[in-house]
Design goal:
By secondary structure, this protein is of the alpha/beta class.
């Protein structure tokens, strides 16, 4: 999916503008940083755990369907939602928030707008004071703020006594006038000039916030905000989450096609490998088949910068940042073409169909729970490198929660160092937009890939390996924030 032109232009303007913490970048949360409302996830949790009664549900729906809430109405809504938490542990409350945001069963971090993330990173790179200002509670916003590395959060605080929730709000809610009051107080305390600052918000209640800054940005504005924006001459930004409409069957068909092409390619490769008595030939045919048909059949285009670097030094250890299972795989196959296998976590080996196919392709499976077994499992991969076959490794070990790469594990670096082969960073920018971490369907669009020059590992030692790992990860961050043209 191509980046939103207005966002790209705005990022260029931010980078060409003033630096320093005197400039604020204030982001609303629900509907601005994430698509939808984190409260909906909380209500789903309460419903599943029997904490949400029919009367409260009815009252909530009626309030949300009615005219724009005023501050008093929002306080009532919050108090209704807190009744079931009265007397419960504050730590438990925060733990539920972490699960709702980033948990294994799903989370609203999967609704993060990619363009919002880009803007947060652009402001941080300029040294601006980035703030999330939201009417949501700390339980909802704090986990995502941590993932986005945003240290300043203004939110609706809850009253806690002796570590237990009282069911009441502490101080003023940050709804409408309450939010702009908190923002002005924060700006005064941190010497922020609001007349030079940026603010991003989507809600009708946030007109005062946008009117208070020199650079207001309505994001997918609600009706009243859209009217106010037009009257004030504010240019709206359009963030796209990539969600399909409920009745749109195309994503499901596209996903089925992608999986079908994958298994069809694997079958064709296995058959040819048996005929030629060459596993390597079978794997290369499977990759070629998948690359040739998967993209055109699903509407996924892979745009590569630095393709020559994929062939500059082979064999090599190719590192990929990991956001989406099949889309990452499609991009990797398109870039590398042939002559490679991979390292995968041990759990994959037990997956139906996929595990045996990966085993057939010579994938090395790592048991991450046992360091000795993991090192031992690298042996076959090391042999492959010495025989001339390149290895693909996802150094994060799991799909990242945001477009920012997670911490890098050392396995791939150890492998390259022991084999004396270079590391080639393969930076994938858009895979998460087409099929995010917990998405079950894939959408069409463009995956952008930057293949960086090979990094020699000759002369590396175990003592300085941490420095090399950090330096390579920083290359990914720098590339994602300043995409090469």
């Amino acid at each position: 999916m191509a980046a939103e032109p207005g966002v790209t232009r705005l990022i260029e303007e931010i980078r060409a503008g003033a630096r320093g913490p005197k400039l604020g970048a204030i982001f609303d949360f629900d509907g601005t940083l994430i698509d939808g409302y984190s409260a909906a996830t909380l209500y789903q949790y309460r419903l599943l755990h029997g904490d949400l009664g029919p009367f409260e549900m009815w009252r909530t729906i009626q309030r949300m369907r009615g005219p724009t809430l005023d501050e008093d109405g929002f306080v009532e809504l919050v108090h209704d939602g807190l009744k079931s938490w009265n007397g419960r542990s504050w730590e438990d409350f925060l733990a539920v928030g972490r699960e709702l945001c980033c948990g294994t069963a799903g989370g609203f971090i999967g609704n993060l707008f990619h363009d919002a993330w880009r803007l947060v990173r652009a402001h941080k790179a300029m040294g601006h004071t980035v703030v999330i200002a939201t009417s949501a509670t700390e339980m909802q916003v704090a986990p995502l703020a941590e993932q986005l590395e945003v240290p300043h959060v203004l939110c609706t605080r809850l009253e806690v006594v002796d570590g237990l929730l009282t069911g009441r709000v502490a101080g003023r809610t940050l709804w409408g006038a309450g939010k702009i009051a908190a923002v002005k107080e924060f700006a005064d305390a941190h010497d922020i000039d609001l007349t030079l600052s940026h603010a991003y918000a989507n809600g009708d209640e946030d007109v005062p916030l946008l009117a208070a800054v020199g650079e207001p940005h309505p994001v997918n504005p609600q009706p009243e905000l859209a009217v106010a924006a037009a009257a004030a001459g504010w240019t709206p930004l359009r963030f796209d989450s990539g969600k399909a409409g409920r009745l749109d069957v195309r994503p499901a068909l596209r996903t089925a096609t992608l999986f079908g092409t994958f298994f069809g390619a694997a079958g064709a490769g296995a058959a040819l490998g048996l005929l030629n008595r060459s596993r390597r030939a079978g794997v290369d045919v499977a990759g070629t088949f998948f690359d040739a048909f998967a993209g055109p059949l699903t509407g996924i285009d892979v745009k590569v910068i630095g393709q020559e670097n994929a062939w500059a030094a082979r064999p090599a250890v190719f590192l990929i940042n990991h956001q989406s299972h099949l889309v990452d795989f499609l991009a990797t196959v398109h870039v590398l073409r042939r002559g490679f296998t991979a390292v995968a976590k041990a759990e994959v080996k037990s997956m139906p169909l996929v595990g045996p196919l990966f085993d057939l392709a010579g994938v090395a499976f790592l048991d991450r729970s046992d360091r000795d077994k993991a090192i031992e499992a690298l042996g076959p991969a090391l042999d492959k490198l010495r025989e001339g076959t390149s290895i693909v490794v996802a150094p994060e070990g799991t799909r990242s929660l945001t477009p920012l790469p997670g911490p890098f594990k050392k396995g791939g670096f150890h492998l390259a160092m022991q084999a004396g082969v270079p590391i080639v960073p393969v930076v994938i920018r858009n895979a998460g937009e087409l099929m995010w971490r917990r998405a079950r369907t894939v959408r069409s669009g463009t995956v952008e890939v930057a293949v960086l020059p090979p990094i020699p590992t000759v002369g590396w030692t175990k003592q300085d390996l941490d420095e090399h790992v950090d330096a390579v990860r920083q290359l990914y961050i720098d590339t994602l924030e300043n995409w090469p043209s």
